[in-house]
Design a protein that fits this description.
four-stranded antiparallel sheet; 328 residues; single chain; alpha+beta; globular
């Protein structure tokens, strides 16, 4: 969990810092700052040599990497094949090489921290910080050597979807507030437009993030959907989240594979529990929820037929003409 006002944001690159200012006596402005890091090719930033030595001496390889090394060659038959494609292309099988990637990645994160610190300091010196709304996010997560991989891919793993989101309000209002609701990048635009008092002229799927700070926060009408398509391999994958008595879960439908994924979002090991009989009710509920989205939203209807055929054992039986766009 990331510290900050709204820590849990889910995305489908570069980090971005957006600032909207409504300072009295000065014209309002909007500034969008992109930082293309951490990203391949990784490198050791100049001037961070001492910090590099400290990290090498104190930071071990992540547990996700050591678990992967321990079970290599005994992959579960429930694992979608897209992960094997990425591992064969970019898997960091050599721990020494993985270590170099890890240290360079951490150092690039520290470069970002320093750059953002300078940016915020400049806002303060110009008297703009107190009256500004500042939003920090990223466009995707990082495998962080899970399964021997870095960066991202066209798969539904939780690590590539979870990113940090920090929201600084004018006057530092609600500083230190933590909101546990899942939010997404679709929510960024309505937030900034709402702060500026601008009514969008077209449909917005997201919600104003400021509404999540209210005790009577409105429920999201439609769960947001994650989609991965093509990168080095075609793997149409669609994912949704759900809350149950057993916890928070992420279900991933892999349209080009008979193997789906189910993750307990509070499990740091990110184990695929799709075949766990104890979680069958969760799997069925999320598949049915996804079916409803495919039916009602024409943007997702291209998945409907194959989904209902391939996952029929968990879905209610249908009658009538099943041709696309023809009412039943």
């Amino acid at each position: 969990m990331w510290p900050g006002p709204i820590p849990t944001i889910w995305s489908s690159g570069p980090w971005a810092c957006s600032t909207a200012c409504a300072s009295r006596g000065t014209p309002p402005f909007y500034l969008h700052l992109d930082l293309f890091a951490p990203h391949q090719p990784f490198f050791i930033p100049a001037g961070f040599e001492e910090r590099e030595r400290q990290l090498r001496a104190t930071v071990p390889l992540p547990e996700g990497y050591t678990r992967w090394q321990a079970r290599r060659g005994t992959e579960s038959p429930d694992e979608p094949r897209v992960y094997g494609t990425y591992e064969r292309n970019w898997g960091l099988y050599d721990p020494a090489t993985a270590r170099e990637y890890q240290i360079a990645n951490l150092l690039q994160m520290e470069v970002i921290d320093a750059a953002l610190g300078q940016f915020l300091d400049r806002l303060k010196k110009r008297g703009l910080y107190d009256n500004s709304l500042v939003l920090l996010a990223a466009d995707h997560g990082e495998m962080n050597l899970e399964r021997g991989l870095v960066d991202k891919g066209v798969y539904g793993h939780p690590k590539v979807a979870r990113i940090p989101l920090f929201l600084k309000l004018p006057g530092n209002a609600r500083a230190g507030t933590v909101v546990e609701d899942d939010v997404c990048l679709l929510d960024v635009s309505p937030t900034l437009l709402g702060f500026a008092g601008i009514e969008p002229i077209a449909r917005h799927d997201g919600m104003d993030l400021l509404s999540f700070l209210n005790e009577d926060s409105p429920a999201r009408e439609t769960p947001f959907v994650f989609e991965a398509g093509w990168h080095v391999a075609p793997n149409p994958a669609v994912a949704i989240h759900g809350r149950f008595p057993a916890g928070r879960f992420r279900y991933v439908y892999n349209a080009a594979d008979h193997r789906d994924e189910l993750y307990d979002l509070d499990d740091p090991a990110c184990r695929n529990a799709i075949a766990d009989p104890a979680l069958a009710p969760v799997r069925i509920a999320l598949r049915r929820q996804l079916q409803t989205i495919f039916e009602r939203d024409p943007r997702w209807r291209c998945y409907r037929q194959v989904f209902e055929l391939d996952r029929a054992e968990d879905l209610p039986a249908k009658t009538g003409d099943n041709q696309m766009f023809i009412p039943e």
